[in-house]
User: Which sequence fits this backbone?
């Protein structure tokens, strides 16, 4: 019999992830606080759950893809209290990007009840969610991550076991902090070149074959028109929003504070994304994060 998945949070990411589980033959029960998200999920083949309780009743797996840690903690512990509604046979996989401390709290509360909990934040964005090519960074017991793999493999191409509970969240924020740093570095290098008479396409091609080569330059060039497929060439629409990068940098800085780690580049990146988010009274937080190029002036 097909496995039953209770899916919470059918937004930009959760919607297409749930749709891929339906395609793989899972019975997916969708629950979201926004009715339109549930309606879309039903069109994709999910069934609508009337309540949190109805969603998890007899479910083999619970998956959540929520905006933040407070919401996740409320769903599992303090509010709806899903951990009190399910038993040890149900595997919990939280794919939301939240603080490692929140993930550890949910896992510890699960453990008290004999419930397996895996944190599995993702990289790959909406396009990766649609194409089922996400990277999952998992934290939890090895056996539980193996069990999660059976479901996650239908939504992603790479599934990593980063370590104990919360380790998936740490891997995710380390990655995104580095992403912010090399995106800003790439933007400032392009601006310097253009200010000194270089064509941004020519400069990009040179750096791609030189020691400055990096993912932002290779896959996501922030200068409009250099790379047809990049958000920069469609008015910075779509992609990974500034406000999500701000959130991830906030989580990275929180982790750095807790571990007394020195993260000067991450701190500067956070500061620059804060400045840029409301630059000149404009709200830039809904634009793709590569639009930080505009902070440096020339491409505006
Ligand atoms: P989103 O806001 O589009 O979706 C979140 C969904 O959760 C919404 O539909 C919302 O109504 C729902 N929700 C809120 N409270 C709920 C509750 N109590 N019960 C059920 N549903 C509830 O956000 P998103 O872009 O899908 O991001 C989800 C998570 O994935 C975030 O943690 C984000 O940081 C992470 N993420 C996003 C991207 C991206 O490119 N969008 C990439 C990687 C990771």
Assistant:
């Amino acid at each position: 019999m097909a496995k039953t998945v209770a899916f919470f949070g059918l937004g930009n990411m959760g919607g297409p992830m749930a749709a891929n589980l339906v395609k793989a033959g899972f019975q997916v029960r969708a629950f979201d606080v926004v009715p339109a998200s549930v309606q879309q999920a039903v069109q994709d083949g999910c069934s609508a759950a009337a309540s949190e309780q109805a969603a998890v009743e007899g479910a083999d797996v619970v998956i959540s893809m929520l905006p933040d840690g407070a919401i996740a903690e409320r769903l599992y512990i303090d509010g709806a209290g899903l951990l009190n509604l399910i038993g040890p046979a149900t595997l919990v996989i939280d794919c939301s990007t939240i603080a490692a401390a929140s993930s550890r709290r949910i896992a510890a509360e699960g453990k008290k009840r004999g419930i397996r909990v895996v944190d599995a934040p993702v990289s790959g964005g909406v396009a990766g969610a649609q194409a089922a090519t996400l990277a999952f960074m998992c934290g939890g017991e090895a056996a539980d991550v193996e069990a999660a793999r059976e479901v996650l493999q239908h939504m992603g191409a790479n599934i990593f076991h980063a370590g104990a509970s919360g380790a998936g969240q740490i891997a995710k924020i380390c990655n995104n902090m580095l992403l912010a740093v090399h995106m800003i570095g790439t933007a400032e290098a392009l601006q310097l070149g253009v200010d000194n008479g270089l064509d941004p396409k020519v400069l990009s091609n040179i750096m791609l074959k030189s020691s400055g080569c990096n993912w932002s330059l290779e896959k996501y060039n922030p200068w409009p028109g250099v790379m047809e497929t990049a958000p920069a060439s469609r008015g910075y629409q779509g992609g990974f929003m500034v406000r999500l990068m701000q959130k991830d940098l906030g989580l990275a800085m929180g982790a750095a504070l807790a571990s007394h780690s020195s993260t000067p580049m991450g701190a500067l990146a956070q500061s620059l994304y804060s400045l840029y988010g409301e630059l000149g009274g404009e709200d830039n937080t809904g634009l793709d994060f590569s639009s930080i190029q505009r902070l440096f002036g020339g491409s505006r």
Observations:
- Residues 8-14, 31-34, 37, 65-67, 71, 75, 96-97, 122, 125-126, 240, 244, 247 surround nicotinamide-adenine-dinucleotide (CB under 6 Å).
- Residues 167-195 form the longest helix (29 residues).
